[in-house]
Amino acid sequence: MAAFARDAGTWKPIAPKWTRRAGVWQKVRKGFADVAGIWKPVWSSDIAVAYHGTGDPGFTFSGVPLPEVGQQRVMVVAWGQFNGGSFSSGNVMGVALTPLVELGSGQSRAGIAAAVVNTGSSGTASVSLTAGASGGPDLGVFSLLGADITPLTTASDATSPINISLDVADGGVIIGCAMGRGTLTAGNGWAWSELVEDFERDTLSNDYVTGAHKAYASAATGVAITATASGSVADSAGVAVSFKPQP
Predict the structure, then answer these.
(1) Cα separations in angstroms, 16 against 3, 8, 67
(2) CA-CA distance, 246 to 71, in Å (whole number)?
(3) Which end of the chain, N or C, is more open, meaning fewer C-beta atoms within 10 Å of its C-beta?
(4) Per-residue DSSP letter, 44
(5) Dihedral of CA 144/146/151/154: which sign?
(6) Does residue 182 lie within any of the structural domains?
(7) How confident is the model at residue 223 (pLDDT cuts 50, 70, 90)?
């Protein structure tokens, strides 16, 4: 239904917003900005919404932003596990996950998977591994509006601190996840550079999993990211995915 405003006692429809481009008036595309004559997606902090909980048998979340008409929504699951096996299966909001990147080092393992889910504002996320401690992995879920499920680049690292380098596209976003085993500092197990931490969970006796992200207005190459674990670290694994806007 069109929006209306009262003008001199008469209800009148509110005209849509327009912008003049190359001498032509065009309707402003919601979620986009005109950059040098090209419509580019606008990413803001509420585009990537993080939820977190135990991944097996799953946890329920709500408040997921709905996509606009013609816009794709990619649900991203970042997970970490102490003494766990590799990714076996998983789903988010009833749609099967596709694994994008994964790394195991010692008894630490981290991965990122995703699915295109264009309907619904609530649901459950779960990840099952081939083996591992009971309770399953701990994970975070991100909602990306207007993203392509095929990554621009992925990266992983098992050093301490974790060092990752990725390229990023115009209007892209990077999501990272790390798992560390040892005696990490309770409540402050990880510190990120470049990315902003969204969640951190103690999976077992001060073994922490963490997830983080950052949105980018402009393309860049070789974006350097570090994740530093606090306290004593026996082994760690970190992964990251650079998502680009949908074609």
Answers:
(1) 9, 20, 19
(2) 8
(3) N
(4) -
(5) negative
(6) yes
(7) very high
